[in-house]
Amino acid sequence: MAFKSGFVTIIGRPNVGKSTLLNRLTGEKVAITSSKPQTTRNAIRAIITRDDFQIVFIDTPGIHKPKTKLGDFMVNTALGTLEEVDVILFMVEAMDIEPKAGDMYIMDLLKKVRTPVFLIINKIDLVPKDQLLVSMKTYGEMLDFKTIIPISALNDDGVSIIVDEIVKLLPEGPKYFPDDMVTDQPERFLAAELIREKMLEFLKEEIPHGIGVEVVSYKQRPNRELYDIEANIYCEKESHKAIVIGKSGIMLKKIGTAARQEMENLMGYRINLQLWVKVKPDWRNSESMLRMLGYK
């Protein structure tokens, strides 16, 4: 049997579950997740390899109306993948019987591409079956989807069907990555993302999207038993810095401890994590800061 390989992008509005699906597909934590929208900022690649195929998934930032240069970067990153892949997974929420404005905008874009599009209706565990059927019919009449797949990424319901359907469309091709590789993201990037995830988890609504993380040092000790990681957390306001640090440093310690534990679980070695909080006003509109943080 000929080996198949190809690239698949996952697009949709913010917070529809794209990163959760990516982690479920690979069985590993390759993308951070959060209940807050616009969690993903870069295109994150995750890899599934089996005896007869390899699929490279690209989790993109949620498509939204940008308000900053960082927002422009995120949306352009998402849109830039559409013509470069073999399959597009367009993800929506089962709770929406009719498409929201953001979904309509994405579907207008999809009408212009030749790439096959799967409609993935996520969070089916939260709606009755008759409502799901209405959603499937409504969306199906708006765009010529290759297939419509209802799933619950959180509960691993229907996820394997996505892989089966993708494989049917993959061309014969090479193995782009080694068998045991589940993401092409360097460990420095994953470390920064895990720190940012914990801030999304623990901090107030308005603060996390004004936060950037830069890993400035990532060194293995001579005895090879421990890695020292130092990272800067950038805020836009002094008041945000105070919140991130917390009274007597409690919040920063909480963020650091949770991030370190997640890193050790993911990377398989002990870590000494040091975090520093700095203020950079309006960094999301700074070309130099965006380049430094990897958003350019």
Annotated CATH homologous superfamily of the largest domain: P-loop containing nucleotide triphosphate hydrolases
CATH class bucket of the largest domain: Alpha Beta
* Second CATH tier, the architecture of the largest domain: 3-Layer(aba) Sandwich
Distance between the termini: 41 Å
Mean pLDDT across all amino acids = 82
> How is the largest sheet built, in terms of strand order?
2-3-1-4-5-6
Task: Please give a structural write-up.
- With 296 residues, the chain is of the alpha/beta class.
- The chain folds into two domains: 4-169, P-loop containing nucleotide triphosphate hydrolases (Rossmann fold, 3-Layer(aba) Sandwich); 187-292, GMP Synthetase, Chain A, domain 3, CATH 3.30.300.20.
- It is 34% helix and 23% strand.
- It has nine helices and nine strands.
- It has helices at residues 18-26, 69-79, 101-110, 129-140, 159-169, 187-202, 238-245, 250-267, 287-292, and strands spanning 4-12, 44-49, 53-59, 87-93, 117-122, 147-150, 212-220, 226-235, 270-279.
- It has a six-stranded mixed beta sheet, with helices on both faces. Strands 7-8-9 form a three-stranded mixed beta sheet.
- β4 (87-93), α3 (101-110) and β5 form a beta-alpha-beta unit.
- The longest helix has 18 residues, at 250-267.
- The termini are far apart.
